[in-house]
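Entry type: protein chain
Record version: 2
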Amino acid sequence: MVQIGLIYAKPCLSVAFGRVGTAGMLKPWAMTKLILHYAPDNASLIIRLALDHLNLPFETVLVDRASGAQRDPAYLAINPNGLIPTLITQDGPIFETAAILLWLNDRFGALMPTDQPARTSTLKWLIWIGNSLHPSQRMMFYPDTYTDGDAEDLRAPTRRRIAHLLTVLSDADDADWLEKPPSAPSFYLAPLLRWCAIYGGDRWFDLADYPRLFAFAQRMEQTEPVLRAIRAEGLGDRPFTAPKPPNPPEGSAV
C-alpha cells in the first residue's frame, strides 16, 4: 500500500504507473490496471464493492484523511474537488461515485439491467441516491461546510429529510432492484444506510424502522464483495444492520 503523496509528488515513482504521451507528458492513468484512491469506510467503499463484484483486478491507494491528504495538491490534480473516491482508469481519472459506477457498467457490464423497463428504473434510483440521498447525508455529516450558524439547526431538518427519502424508497413500487441480485444502486445504497446509523447524532436512526431496507441490508451482508470489504476496511461482522465505527488496518475514516 502506498500513500497518495508518495505516488504523485515524486515523478520518479510515477513512471511505474503510466507512460509518456506524444507531447512528452507523463500520463499516470494510461494503463490497464485500475487504481482506487480510497479512505476506509468512505464513499470509496461503494466503488470497492462494485469492483469486487465485477471480479476486476485493482490496486488501492490510501488517501490519508487524518493528515488531510485529500487536500494535497497531488490529489487535487486528479480530483479538484478534494473528495473521495477517485478511480484511475485508462480513460483518465474519474470522480463522483455515480459516474464511476456508470463508467464501470459501460466498460464491463453487470452493474445495470439490460432489459427495459428495469434498466430505466434502476438508472433513475441510482441517480436519485447520488443526487438526493447522498448529498443530504453530507449536509448532516459536515454541517460546517454548509452553514455558518449552529450545526444542529441544519442537522435537525436534514435528519427529517433523510427519513422522508428512505420512506419514499422503501415504499416505491418500481425499486424492485432492492430484492434482486446486487446492482449499481445496491452497492451505493448499502454503505449509506450504514453511515446513517454511525454519524449525524446519537440514536436518530434505526434501520429496523424500514423493514424492506433492513431485509435488503441483510442480503447485502452475505455477498462476497461485502465479506471481503469487511476484512479490508475493518467494518465489523454486520456492517449494515448493526454498524459500528470501523477499525481499519490502515488509514482513518474521518
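Comment: The chain has two domains: 4-108, 118-233.
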